[in-house]
Structure formats: structure tokens, C-alpha cells
Amino acid sequence: MPHYRKPPKPLLRKVGRAIADYDLIREGDRILLGVSGGKDSLSLLQILMNLQTYAPVKFELAVLTIDPEVEGFDPSPLTGYYDELGLPWHYVRQPIMEEAKERMNGDSFCAYCSRMKRGIMYSSCREHGYNVLALAQHLDDLAESFLMSAFHGGQLRTMKAHYLNDSGDVRIIRPLVYVRESQTAAFAGEAQLPVIPDSCPACFAMPTQREHMKQLLAGEEKTNKQLFSSLLHAMRPLMQEGGLPY
């Protein structure tokens, strides 16, 4: 029976610092982690399981996987993995892509899918009594969102590290906000985590603004090794609890 794989210390340190800086996990929290099957969410699963073994606060952990019923993407094998890890899990199927074809109104598929998935996550938290929803966006995601907002929306915004949903009954946390995508990719590979390839074939099939920002940042980082450190410093006020969530 497989157990969690202990993440490397640099990864644990960054997550630990984010938890402390933004008060992400509190005594008695019941955390539902959204796991898509990608490297980031599976890495965060291992990190939170590891954290449970020594954290000064006690918290419960369960997993939610949403199957959008997209051709070529089947996350159902993950349920067996969760059983082997001894984790409570929830699996929700919904034909999001088919619904999008009928209901989208000037929105991108990615935006529609994200909104639908978030609704399912909130409903699952309420139905099963979880007060915290954990998401696996990392520093690269925040930087991409920051540039997209500035370039296309004329606003300085990015994803929050920690905020309360509009209904006031679920806290959303992002423990990977200080972690680079390269770190989760390296850990997922070394630990042989059961990553589901192409976790969103629809997104992979069509280039997005986010992918353009990713390439832009990669190019800039080649000549500026402090790029993400500088971006994090600039984004910190936007990541705090209290402003508009994103």
C-alpha cells in the first residue's frame, strides 16, 4: 500500500511559510483539496499529508476530483489511488464541455469550466461539512494572472492566497503561492505521482492568453533570474485577505 512521498525540504519550507504568512490552516479545519490529476494538485496532496504528521494544528483532509467528461481525459483511476492512501474522497461527474457549448455567452471555455468547477467545489464543501477548500495554484499561476489582469483588464489583480467566499461559509486557501511550477514538476516526477496526462485536453488544444503569458515570463526569466522574486514582492499586497477575491 503506497504512502505519501515526503516532499523535499525546499518545497515544504515554502508551503510552511505561506501557511504562516496567510494563516491558511487552523486548528480543527476540515480541508477539501481539489485534485485535477495534474502535477500541482497531486504534489499539494502529498505536502498536506506530510504536514498532518507533524503540524502543531490538527486538521482533516479529503479529496475532490471533478470529471468534466471531456474526451481523452479520464481521472477515475485516481479514486483507487486515494483508497490506497487511506483518504476520504469525492468524485463528481458533470458534462461541462457539452454544457459550455450551449450556455457559454462570450466567455472562454476555460473561464466557463473554472466557474462551473468552483460551484461544484463549494457545493461539495457544504454537503459534506468541509470549511476549507484548498487549491493548487502556484507562484507561476499568480504571475500569469497578474500580467493578464494588467495587460487585458487594466487592473492590478492576482489570485488570493486566502479568502472567504461570497457566502461566507468556505475559506479558500492556496498553499503553493510561493512555490514555482518547476518544483512541483520535479517532485511529481521524482515521486512518480500518478499524474493524469493532459488534465484538460480542451485547453491544450487551443492556445490561451495564459499560455502566452507563461512563454513571456519564461523568456524574461532567462535574462532576469530574480524575476519571480520581484513579481512576488509586487503581488504581495494583492494576495492578502480582504481585497477582491480572484
What this model shows, in words?
By secondary structure, the chain is of the alpha/beta class. The chain has a single domain, classed as Rossmann fold (3-Layer(aba) Sandwich), CATH 3.40.50.620. It is 49% helix and 11% strand. It has ten helices and six strands, in the order αβαβαβααβαββαααα. The chain has a six-stranded mixed β-sheet with strand order 3-2-1-4-6-5, sandwiched between helices. Strand 5 and strand 6 form a beta hairpin. It starts with 8 loop residues before the first helix and ends in a 7-residue tail after the last helix.
Tally of extended strands? 6
- Strand line-up of the largest beta sheet: 3-2-1-4-6-5
Number of H- or I-type helical stretches:
10
Question: How widely separated are the two ends?
Answer: 38 Å
Q: Spans of 5+ residues with little confidence (pLDDT < 50)? A: none
Structural class, please? alpha/beta
| Shape label | globular
**CATH structural fold name:** Rossmann fold
Query: Average pLDDT value?
Result: 90
Number of domains: 1
What is the CATH H-level superfamily? HUPs
